[in-house]
Amino acid sequence: MSTLMTYRIEHDALNELIQELRKEKYNVIGPTPRGEAIVLDEITSALELPIGKTDEQSPAQYHLKDRTDKAYFGFSAGPHSWKKYLFPPILRLVTASGNGSDLQISDDASKPNEEEKYALFGVRACDLSAIHIQDQVFGDGTYKDPAYLRVRNQAFIVAVNCTRAGGTCFCSSVRTGPRARVGFDLALSEVIDNEHYFIVEVGTERGEKVMSSVSRRPAGDTEMEKADRLIRAAAQLTGRSLEPDNTREILYQNTEHPRWDVVAARCLSCANCTMVCPTCFCATVEDTTDLTGTEAQRTRKWDSCFTMDFSYIHGGSVRPSARGRYRHWLTHKLASWVDQFGTIGCVGCGRCITWCPVGIDITEEFRVIRETYLMTSRVSSTKEATHGNS
Amino acid sequence: MASVLEVPSDTTFVSAGPMVPRPFVVKRFRKETDDTFTLELEPKEGRSRFVFGPGQFNMVYVYGVGEVPISISGSPSTPGLIHTTRAVGTVTKAMAKLKKGDIVGIRGPYGTTWPVKEARSHDVVIVAGGIGLPPLRGAIYEILSNRKDYGKVVLLYGVRTPADILFKDELEQWRARFDMEVFITVDRAVSEWRGNVGVVTTLISKAGFDPQNTIAMIVGPEVMMRFTALEFIKRSVKPDSIYLSMERNMKCGIGLCGHCQFGPMFVCKDGPVFRYTQIKDLLVKWEI
Amino acid sequence: METLERILGQHPFFKDLGPDYLQLVTGCASNVRFEQDTFIFREGEEANQFYLIREGRVALQVFSPERGHITVETLGEGDILGWSWLIPPYNWHFDAKALDLTRAIALDGKCLRRKCEEDHHLGYEILKRFAHIIEQRLESTRLQLLDLYGVRS
Question: Among A271, A387, C55, C77, which is least packed, fewest CB within 10 Å?
């Protein structure tokens, strides 16, 4: 296959797509309303998607609302991200059994299971970027995470282009969205005017194969254009922005900025931001034994740089203050991540802003520090100019 | 370093996932001081050679208790695996109760090595503070086994009290050599102590090296390493000829868990051995 | 005296002092020797010298009735011993004991104090050098106080 197709499917054909994926033995994971939020979970039909639901998001605020239409994807990023499946919050690494002189060790993390063949259904452009960032973290170094790579390599990705700007997100400024550009098997754009249909961009042969059993027809230019317009409009509407250039210089030169104290006075060190962040990858390992002491387990769990234990070395924590911990998190996200993996570690999904209980806004914190940087570099370039003239 | 680069025939490799410890048998447990001890280990299965470079560390797993990073304190060119550590946390305290025949899990070796190759034809000044001697011992062995390739070799060793001196017999053997100088100093003396008293930095003036042609290797508490590096620079040693070994919390040892970040560095894979110039700015930023 | 002047001139402590001043200082200098385990000076005694240790080791000690002689610092070849001669009331604050056979050049503090009073430029040169020694000792004392190798709990 040389050229990849773009199709139009009617809204009720969306379920055909889900059923086709299920037929291919994929465990389909998608957004679904649960309680007061849209979360990610296994879905068995398109009816489980948040049809006619939307969310209102602002710092520390998330509310589910009804829409006036029957949109399937008329909402923004919820509290869950796809890392929950690719990089599970709890993963048993090793089971060791025996006693002092005899130790049998089994490599649990390397054992595949049936459930983990996932179709990730409804991945937004920001989250697709987040997955690519975690690919770098877990799959591009000297040591790789076999469990991540195993799940990741078989995951089928159905992306969804955003046609609505969320209350806290800023993908267009960090250049990750709202359109999914690469790394998907299929990418959907939902169009609702007098009709309700999806434009389906095929990204892989695997994607084409699945589409072949779904009621479809090649997309027409006007239809595609309509979808494009909606996506472009969403890009214009994002209320926040974060300037992703020179982040290293800006943050490395401002490790003692007074703003760190200001934010530290608000930060509760609750770790919510790191849990909802789709790129945060820190983990700890816990060791436990059963009551008889004959079997020991090593379990990997998500960890957060906001806890005191995170940096503990005998006698104390390397980052005992909230200031030190927040600075570490933000500086890692926007600056040292570039040194480590070649890109910033923020995709602009806005989750950390929405789910911060006190509404700390990463774009605002960075903006204040960036302004100081711009001001001081203006001052020093003016000084240089003056010297040059004299 | 030949032993590190070439793979001898008595070597075993780990093929399992990177988080799976390999069982090793305790061959010998030796108490060094009140709170430090040495474990001599051998793989439970497979051959006895453990290939590593001086300065590298292992993740040592105690059944059901936990896993900690511990530097390797043995010689890269002899069989077996040696760890010397201090019982300070849950895992090392459990390690202190191990006895001959017990099993521990080992993952490694991980991290960067001492520049023993680059140090050839240079004077080498090794500075150890407290429990900082074990991570340097592999480098000392490597240098002494190719002694003719190096200029002056000096070990400066500072400890808290005379009772805290590690590897006393070995230090005496090294001191007795004509081609190595060993200076020891203690922070707190007892009345019987006739040796040096004062911090380890005071020994640098005694070492008599050629500053332009010296490689310094330092391990100890961070404050001690900072002041030691400055003392070398004061004496005209080139900052990029100074190396030190960092310690941070580690859960994986392989750059995946995020715990050991030190600015943009992962201490587990970019370190633990760093060139001073790589990290000198980070060393004076608090809570980095 | 000629060799003494040469030895003093080569010592980092007197580096760049200039030939005239060096000669002046040499006039206050003499070779001394202390057998192993003898005291060079004792706490409370009048401090009228300082020493440039050429060979051997010297322990600075405090005597405590409960703990005996406690060494706070040892000095060796190339080190400067003693600055109490500079600061009134010119009494030693510690005991200095030769741990090995120790050879040193003693500089007469009374003589030097007088010369420094007469010529403040010389006084400044000497004081600057002692400030450096005092700074070094203070820094190592501070590091010692930190008790860096102790287990934190």
Answer: A387
Q: CATH number, domain at C79?
A: 2.60.120.10
Write out pLDDT tens, residues B30-64.
Answer: 999 999 999 999 999 887 789 999 999 999 999 98
CA gap B34, C59 in Å, rounded: 27
Which residue on chain C is closest to B157 by alpha carbon?
C149
Backbone torsion region of residue C152, taken as left when φ is above 0, otherwise alpha when ψ lies between -120 and 50, otherwise beta: beta
A24 and A165 in a single domain? The answer is: yes
Q: How many Å apart are CA C31 and CA C56, to the nearest integer? A: 14
Q: Which of C76, C140, C149 sits opposite B201 (nearest CB)?
A: C140
DSSP character string of B101-161? T-EEEEEEEES----TTTTTTSEEEEEEEGGGSHHHHHHHHHHHHTGGGSS-EEEEEEESS
Output the pLDDT for position C153. 53
CA–CA separation, A270 and A304 (whole Å) = 9
A387 close to C (CB below 8 A)? no
Contact B197/C148, CB-based, under 8 Å?
no
**Residue A98 at interface with chain C, using a CB cutoff of 8 Å:** no
Please indicate whether, in this complex, the C-beta atoms of B249 and A300 are within 8 angstroms of each other: no
Who's near A221: CB < 8 A, 6+ residues apart?
none
ipTM surpasses 0.85: yes
Query: Out of B201, B205, B223, whose CB is closest to C78?
Result: B205
Q: Does residue A213 sit in the same domain as residue A333?
A: no
Find chains touching chain C: ≥3 CB pairs under 8 Å: A, B
B171: Cβ contacts below 8 Å, ≥ 6 apart = B155, B157, B165, B182, B184
B161-211 pLDDT, tens digit per residue, is 999 999 999 999 999 999 999 999 999 998 889 999 999 999 999 999 999
- Cite the beta strand spans of chain A per DSSP E: 6-10, 27-34, 37-42, 53-58, 61-66, 90-99, 102-107, 118-124, 156-160, 186-192, 196-202, 217-218, 283-289, 295-302, 312-313, 316-317
- For residues C85 and A176, what is the distance between their CA atoms, to the nearest angstrom? 73
Nearest CB to B258: which of A281, A313, A325? A281
Residue C117 lies in a domain: yes
C92 to chain B, closest Cα gap in Å = 19
Question: What is the structure's pLDDT at B17?
Answer: 84
**Across the strands, what pairs with A64?**
A55
Give the domain extent around A97: 7-237
